[in-house]
Amino acid sequence: MTDSYAVFGNPIAHSKSPLIHAAFAHQTGQDMVYSALLAPLDGFCEAVSVFRAQGGCGANVTVPFKEQAYALATRHTPRAQAAGAVNTLKFEADGLLGDNTDGAGLVRDLVANLDFSLAGQRILLMGAGGAARGVILPLLEQQPASLFIVNRTADKAIALAQSFGDQRNLSGGGYAALSGTFDLVINATAASLAGDLPPLPEDVFAPNALAYDMMYGKDTPFLAFARTHGARTADGLGMLVEQAAEAFYVWRGVRPDTASVMQMLRSA
Ligand code: ATR
Fold this sequence. Notes:
Rossmann fold; 10 helices
């Protein structure tokens, strides 16, 4: 019988996940289908349990349900625990495994696709919401020299850094507290959605710095700002494909090739 997976979100019509997973399945010869399912804002858990009862094997979860998926899971991977959110559910005989592949997807895009080694680098992470929280542990695992979380509401960045315990290379603050330059600046804020630029100093980028926007699909004020100030830029399409590949691996135990899928999405 063909195995069935789905992504739950609200809205969900725009999701590229069905296209990505269909390409992975075709490429690796896995017998599976993957669909996008709209869950009512007050009916996420019900939607997942119906899907599971109908024989579903696992699911991806996107906005605004990642925290609810965390609560629904009966077991969590350490990276899901650190994120406080789940984007990948694996249905098991004795419960629901909750995982989070967002941070691993970002790290893989940076290291493998963009050839940016994180060890010893000074990283600036903008934003202190769920998107930022989800990538902190996987970034720290790469042993950067420092990871500074900067946020419009400084207290949230400070609290987020502190929630990871006593880490010598992790701290947080407001934009006014920024000093020095960074090798990598990641935009995990919602600013790009609104066409806004976070209040970055002009001299934030070190020579050969990389500016990474988690958003994809259009040029953002942050990436335009970065280009103007001599930084290399990348959007979040690679992270999208890599987090999907990591979820595919969690479910199927097979690693798909991501380069061809990224190329397909870029040329679409
Ligand atoms: P998500 O789950 O996508 O991270 P969120 O929890 O609503 O969404 O967090 C949005 C983040 O973007 C927050 O860090 C927010 O800053 P505040 O905590 O100060 O609200 C940040 N953000 C949103 N719009 C921004 C803007 N125009 N400039 C800078 N930061 C912005």
